[in-house]
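pls read this protein:
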Amino acid sequence: MITKSVKLTLVCILFSSLSACSSVLNTPDSALGGTHFYSLLALAPSPSGPSSQLRIGVGPVEIPRLLNRPQIISRKNNTEILMAEKHQWGGSYKEELTQALTDNLSNLLNTDNIEQYPWKFAFKPAYSVRVTIERFDGQLGKEVILKARWRLFKGNKEVLVKQSRVKESIVGKSYSHYVRAQSRALTELSKKIVSQIKDLNHQS
C-alpha cells in the first residue's frame, strides 16, 4: 500500500520533472549545452504543371574563405566577426549552399534535368550558372545579407553577368532563426536567377 508520504514524494518528483522539461523547451538554443548542427532549407517541389525538359548546370559555387568552415559565421557589429563553436553546419557549407541552390532551381523551373559542377561529359546543359558568394552573414535577431555575383551561360556562351544583394529579416534571436533567414535569402537569389533563365528561354 502506498502511503500518503510516498504519494506526496511521487507528485513532487513529477512536477519537478515537468518543470525541468518546460525550462529546457523555453531555453534559447544558445544557452543549451552541446553542439548544435544545422542545414539550409530549400523550396518544396511544386506539384503544378508538367515537368520541364530544360537542362540546367549549377556551379561552380565559390565562397569566401571566411565562410569555408564548420562554425556558423555572424557579426557582432560591422567590423567584428563571431564564430559559433556550439552552432555548426552539419556538413560542408559550400556543399550546403550548392545543394540548396540546385534544389531551388530544380523546383522553381520544375525540372529534374539538373546537375552540379563538374557534371558528366554527356550532360549538355541548355543553361548553367556560376555563383561567387561575396558575403553571406548578418546579426542574430536582426538581418542576414547575401551578396553574390553570378554569371549565366547559354550552352558555352556567357550571356549575362549580375550582382545581387539580398537582405532578409531574422524572425527570432536563435541560430535556428538565423539559418532560416539564410535559407530565405538564398531562395530569393534563386528566384532572380530563374527569372533570367526564363526570359532567355522565351526569347529562344
